[in-house]
Amino acid sequence: MIYVPAPGNTEKFVDSIPTSERLFSGFFEDKDHTIWIASVERLAKIKEQQQLHFNSRINPLVDDIRNIAETSDGKLLAFSRENGILQFNGSSFIKAPWQFYDYPADNIDFTDTYFRDEKKRTWFATRNGRIFRIEEKGLTNCSYLLPDRTMVWADYNPLTKKIFLALDTLRTADETHSFNFI
Fold it and tell me: What burial letters (b/e) apply to 33-61, b meaning 16+ CB within 10 Å?
């Protein structure tokens, strides 16, 4: 069951949406207050209690969506385990112009976590232990921040301007290097 509040309402739910999914992999609210919900079976778009579903029967690219993010310039991205980075074009999802597989990896790669830094760049931590960021010129591989490439979770502290990387240990990083956090 998904509970949906009215716009601006933080106290009461105005609707509930029954769902057959057993596992949700990502939630995102965009600048227009549309709620996007990712799962293995589909990607749901919920706006003021109206639902629109994208799935592999409608669009073969929309399969096993693991996360959803928005870039600083407003591009909505969905990360499919099987089909890479997808971009919403206003009515459907298409392949994004840059992909993680443009950079060789041992396995299929997809985003587990993401954050935006003070320069409004969007950073992605992937299942294969890689770090990327989106800039005007496209996707930049920043995996040099990881001395050992294992699965990574990442976040950003805007006050200290530090990137936090959780591997087998917690590390902090800036744009040029990472180091162990004690």
Answer: eebbbbbebbbbbbeeeeeeebebeeeeb
Taking the complete model, does pTM exceed 0.85, yes or no? no
Going by C-alpha positions, the residue among 54, 46, 38, 52 that lies closest to residue 13 is 46
Q: What are the tokens at 24? A: 């949700």
Structure tokens at 9: 């309402």
Reported in sequence order, the residue ranges of the chain that DSSP labels E, i.e. its strands, are 2-5, 13-17, 24-29, 35-39, 42-47, 50-55, 65-70, 76-80, 84-88, 93-95, 111-116, 122-126, 131-135, 138-141, 153-157, 162-166, 170-173, 178-180
Give the number of other Cβ atoms within 10 Å of residue 179's Cβ. 12
Residue 164 near residue 170, CB atoms below 8 Å: yes
Calculate the CA 67 to chain-centre distance.
4
H and E: helices and strands count for the chain: 0, 18
pLDDT tens for each residue of 120-138 = 888 888 888 888 888 877 8
For the cut 80, the answer to whether the pLDDT of residue 147 exceeds it is no
pLDDT exceeds cutoff 60 at 150? yes
